[in-house]
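Q: What would this chain look like folded?
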Amino acid sequence: MPLDPATPVLVGAGQVTNRPGTEGGGPLTDRPEPIGLMVEAVRAALEDCDGAPVGGAAPAGRTLVGRTQSLRVVNPLSWEYVNPGDLVAEALGIEPAETLVTSVGGNNPQSMVSATALAIGRGELEVAVLVGADCVYTRTAARRHPDRPVLSWTVQPADTERPVMFGNDRRGTTDAEEERGLDLPIHVYPLFENALRSEAGRSPDEHRRHIGQLWSRFSEVAGANPHAWLRSARFPEEITAVSDSNRMIAYPYTKLLTANMQVDQGAALIMCSAGAARAAGVPQDRWIFPLAGSDADDHWFLSHRADFHSSPAIRLAGASALTLAGTAVDEIAHLDLYSCFPSAVEIAAAELGVSPDDSDRPLTLTGGLTFGGGPGSNYGTHAVASMVAALRADPGSRGLVTGLGWYLTKHSVGVYGTEPQSGPAPPGSGRSLPEGTVVAGAGGFVWADPQAAVGSLPQCSPDTDAQGEVTVETYSVSYDRGGSPDRAVVACRTPEGRRAWAKVTDPGYLDLLVAEEGCGRLGKVRPDGEVDLR
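A: My prediction, written as structure tokens:
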């Protein structure tokens, strides 16, 4: 069957990593700002359309960029622009009909690929550029430098035309959760990690070895990735052991078990219709097909989650995307699971049905957000760019990428291949979609929204005024810079089964929570919100 000219294809992928000591990595005031890295990444992606070396001739890329109708930017965290897409377009010498910017969230790059694929398939777009970059390393280094150098980064006029907004910018926590200290990912994800350890029946030492081995495998992938920020493989013990350079941040996470946002990185994707790719002269062996996607949110607030060791949204979104792509997870050759913390990977792997121990199919293509680098919300663009390269090198294969926002809250899944769907509708797989799933498709790409099924699942009822007897579900212990446990946030269940949040500041109780299993312990919440453990 002839290929529908409206079929969406990824034809270019570019990545830029500006490490200290490399070209472009000179004095802080000379280092590129986020817009500069975005432009560099787009140019690399345009050269990639032709398979040209860096700085080489790229006639197909030049043709496509001149036809760009939509410039879509992942919002940087290191600098606030009114309309970053305008600045990128100006630097490239193009005039797209629209510029778009995302909300904050690591789910947005994959979600934006799916939305762009749908728009192309429907004939609403022919050529789009997706790009993002962050320069947290440079921004932080300038702030910490004794001379406090001034970064002359671009400030747009306040009356600059606003871009189209993409994504959900709803806050991630309730007032009650924030009051207890659940205000940052590093304070939240240990809740999941400790719950996973308890559910698996591992001792604290066994679980530290488990996550150390997982992250060691990620570091090995980063060692082979030329775009990774940290390119040295680490032993498991090196990752989990506390040292001057690897302090404990929040039990059981040392620095090397957390997302590394202290990076300067950018990535870009060129997406277009098959008709536009053919007309521009992009060689067909450069084409990668987005086959299916799915987006879903878990029960939004932590207080309402049924537990802290699972994610129904990942499970249902993953199953929906695989079903619509006419494939099964065992047929996926290449994976990149969003990896801000080990718990995010462990839960996604379990929900998707993949082994975290399969050396022939690593769970990352980049090395993950610790070693590959965690450039704000834009990690997913690097993941998709790396997927493009992996699939081109393995004709006939398929890959899967996940994105994640907030606290295992917002999820996006994409399935990719070197060949298009075999027909205008997704091939029958013998599997059904979750009840109430909304499906949209065009040009051979299909997207699913199983939110109705997620929303119908049981929720926990919070008790914001709980006092008295409780059972500990899970907990997060934060450390001060001196290396001592500083405070803990504890998720508890009341005798009625409702969820309460308590705190611990007593040194003896803090030591107990990091030395022994705290999940399942009994306690008593005092009027001041502190919990006494037994």
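The first strand starts at residue 8 and ends at 17.
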